[in-house]
Amino acid sequence: MASPQKRSFFRYENGVVLMMFFTFGFVFMERLSIVYLFPFIAPDLKLNNAEIGMIASVLAVCWAVSGFIFGSISDLVGSRKKVLLPITLAFSLFSFLSGLARSFWQMILVRGLMGVSEGPVLPLAQASVIAASTPERRGFNLGFVQSSLGLIGSFLTPIIVTQIAVHYSWHEAFYLVGVPGLIMFFVLLKWMREPGRGTAQEAEAVEHTKVRLADIGAVFRHRNMWFCVLIAIFSMTWLFAFTTFAPTFLTEVSHYSPDEMGLIMSAVGLGTFVWGFVGPAISDRLGRKPTLILFAFVACLSPICLALLRAPVGVMMVVAFLTTVGQAVFPLFLVIIPGESLPYRLVASAVGLTQFIGELVGGTFAPWLGGVAADHWGLVAPMWIAAAGMLVSALLAFGLKETAPAKIGRRALEAQEIVPTA
């Protein structure tokens, strides 16, 4: 029989999931706010498309490097909270400073520092959730935390920041989106506890998730890891080329008003949130590999439809919601497939390295390449770069080995049934 603590909703497992959901969601609210504000910032600071791409790229490279470094530091000092608290305070401060920037180089500096402070949040959040999760809830908990990117970062943020920018200015929008991070700093300060200092289960989880230098080499001995890393690079090319330039494309090329652009991009965010749940759920029955292939091919359509369609806002919102299914593949190649391919003690290292390489290459190179291409061939060019990135991801997924327990179990059962009896 389950203990009252296990039955109660008000237990630390649910508490830490909610705290990390909102913390990570507000991180992406602050990270993505600038892409929805570029139509307002670019004329004010006299930015060209290459400079827009560089601003997005510098945050991505700082995010990738700091996530790997500070995640390792948290292992060395034996504390998630002592690292997470100051960086939560820092990224809120840098959002405020983004609103004070008055030149391209000031914005580059501030967004780079923001990337340094935000990069470690996901690895630290995942480690804290893993330590507090019961085995049967671990996958759901991790997916729920990551889905905050869609609900808060991609759905709510474009509506909020574009409305503030229209009625006030883009400076005030940055000031406002820094406030939720400050709130989460005090929430974490009061209620977050160090993994391993609660139940025996948490202590065991922490011991199994410690990163050792020798583990890093072992991670790449599995075929699936090589494919997951490559898929991460091209999927993040899709993500960052699309999200960086889609708002500007909608206002400057498709001639939607900033309000209308905010509504279309919010539909993209809602699709990101919903498909982030639906895709992994489908993969439980259909299998990880076919689900990843299917959703990656569909995700190619999101930048293509944006580039080719000029329809009423309501129609564009429906199209955006139905085609922006790329977030369904991110939990698969970033967490689920590595987690099912490797021993549990190596999963944290695998996720950290996949995120690091994907973000460093795809997240850094794609916005810069998209900006240069946009200056030479127009803002439609980044849309085609994004589509190509997800197309390559879909093709790479054919090289994966299936890991879904249900599908592997069915195959084993079928193999037993076809063996002829003596």
TrEMBL record:
GO terms for MF: transmembrane transporter activity
Domain Major facilitator superfamily (MFS) profile stretches: 16-405
Membrane topology (UniProt): Multi-pass membrane protein
Keyword Metal-binding recorded: no
Keywords: Cell membrane, Membrane, Transmembrane, Transmembrane helix
Gene Ontology cellular-component terms listed: plasma membrane
Regions crossing the membrane: 16-40, 52-71, 83-102, 108-132, 139-161, 173-192, 226-249, 261-279, 291-309, 315-337, 344-369, 381-400
Superkingdom of the source species: Bacteria
Pfam family, one: MFS_1
Compartments, record wording: Cell membrane
UniProt xrefs under PANTHER family: CHLORAMPHENICOL EFFLUX PUMP RV0191, PURINE EFFLUX PUMP PBUE
Record protein name field: MFS transporter
Organism: Thermogemmatispora aurantia
